[in-house]
Fold this sequence. Notes:
The protein contains seven helices and four strands, in the order H-H-H-H-E-H-H-E-E-E-H. By secondary structure, it is α+β, with helices and mostly antiparallel strands. The chain folds into two domains: 3-57, no CATH class; 69-149, Glutaredoxin. A hairpin with a 2-residue loop joins strand 3 and strand 4 (131-133). It is elongated. The model has no long low-confidence stretch (mean pLDDT 94). The structure holds FE2/S2 (inorganic) cluster. FE2/S2 (inorganic) cluster binds next to helix 5.
Amino acid sequence: MDKKIIEKYAPDPENLLFILHDIQDSKVDHYLSFNDLQEVAKYLGIPVSKVQGVATFYSMYSLEPRGKYIIRVCESAPCHVMGALDILKEFKELLGLDKIGETTKDKLFTLETSACLGVCGVAPACMINDVVYGNLTKEKIKQIIDGLRKGGSNV
Length: 155
Ligand code: FES
């Protein structure tokens, strides 16, 4: 982990969530290793158990390596009504995944679900890393995945 990420912030425990977020975002496998947690604890002067507790409490953090692209399919009511379950099924089929939370063997994609992404007007929607995609259809999903497999750049 690049120490400059931590040092951007004052050594104040109130910055814990931001620091964990930035570290996780900076890594191609989008997760927090135990070593990362130790470094953060040392910098903030708090027990590593506290950092670990926070990292396990919030679902946005992962302690397991994930894919280069994290796909989060919105499953809140407006997206559900507009077919989010079919969208989720299509992602699973295209990626060859059985369950939510799994990562493809090539380590390219992890499939997750999410609460409302704030773009209900274009439901059903998903977010892939920091990019939001709306009005999803089976065809559109296939195009997105094909594009990313060919080296699309929405990291
Ligand atoms: S319910 Fe899916 S974006 Fe709001």
